[in-house]
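S.,

Sequence below, as promised.
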Amino acid sequence: FKQAEGFAGLAPASRAILGLQPSGGSLPLHESKTFYPRSSVVRMQEAAEATGKKGAAVVSPAELAEEIARRRTFAIISHPDAGKTTMTEKLLLYGGALQEAGAVKAKGERRRATSDWMKIEQERGISISSTALQFEYKGMQLNLLDTPGHEDFSEDTYRTIAAADNAVMLLDGAKGLEAQTLKLFDVVKLKKLPLFTFINKMDRPALEPLELLDTIEQTLKVVPFPVTWPIGSGDRFVGVYDRLARKVVLYTKAAAGAKKAEELNIDDVMDERLDELVPEDLLVQLREEVEILEEIVEPLDLEKVRAQKQTPVWFGSGFNNFGVQNFLDKFIEISQTPRGRPSTDGEIDPESPEFSGFVFKLQANMDPKHRDRIAFVRVCSGRFEKDMQVLHTRTGKTVRLSAPSKLFAQRRETIEKAYPGDIVGFVNPGAFSIGDTITTGKKIQYEGIPSFSPEFFNYIRNPNPSKQKNFKKGIDQLREEGAVQVLYSNNDFEIDPVLAAVGQLQFEVVASRLVTEYGVETTYEPLPFNIARWVE
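The prediction came back faster than expected:
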């Protein structure tokens, strides 16, 4: 098989033949550990054509340091059905970005969760594509990266984690650590991101809190520090004890969780008012457990958190908004600011005056009116300004970056400036590939974005010749996103492309998006292979 042109991160340009290994069979295959982007034919403006346009922006060290200090960029990771999308909605609600939060399993308008904007996501109630959401909260600029939980879309999740400075791990209180969470934690550990843990769904029957903490410590080898402690669980979950503020926070449900929960703060766990507000057995248990925690739990140490030796833990219910604001307020205080990034020229400090960033995601058809493609760029250093010229280090070309956007899921808002930690969207006319670096300084390349060998292969066929143009356009654009890899047979009689994917669900997503975004019905023919390697 021949690889389709233009997919970033799959193979060295010198190789053209891909061997597919049949299930149970074997081929003399060579496995390449490092993947490099292939050059693609693109239209770019040369520096000589951009007369009068801006190059490197002049920014004062004080301004840059101030803007970096108020930014927090974090990815949320979890096993499917741990409540990640609902929790994302509630963070947006408390952050002031939404007036009313959506929910995955709600009815009517509230079913439309902000981060799940694709039709197939709304129909199936699962996250398929990672999403960037940016909003201001208490003077801080938050860049929230919502990731798919299903393992079939883990490639997109891994790329998105590469753009984060912090990781928030969401656990189901009834299940604790699950398989996909463990896999994603390995990536977080590899990227050396500090880990913050929110134990969700405490409004349902849950495991004992001490058992959950012990599982985290024994399995992840990270010492948990409970910032809050739950008062009851299931339908008796009434609030939390804030161990750092030394206060009890009692909650009253809002209607279907759409609005903020009402809170009652009591400054002392021994306050007599609690005798009337909390069931006696829960109050006795709370006071006993608070004493135990003071004796057995190590103090919170932010250096250990940065070194992945300790994880702050919150308990709550995203659906009912219990514990969400407490988490958000403390998270912006103790989480990591944008950090230096490894490159071919060593670590690049975010306070470096030269702008630089890398492309970690491409997304087609976010705007159904224009059907354009957006490149997601993580700003790593310096200050970005609209219309600035940058060096596209893979091609050596100079590119003018116009129409930059602040991203909020499907919605976009034009911006003039961006700083390290920010996620900026650029309309991509085929110029960018996943993993590309752009800079106003000398030529550098940021650390590569992971690429994975596919394990499932299908011929995809277009039964309607009149739709061939849309079919080809759809396949090309979805390939650029990295949603699938596209191969063509060396047999001249077989002209249909082969889609190669990490998981079976990716084929369903491609078929659905070809219908909804390109108006093309397709059929699949499975192939009996499970490994792809470059043949020497």
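The radius of gyration is 24 Å.

Coffee later?
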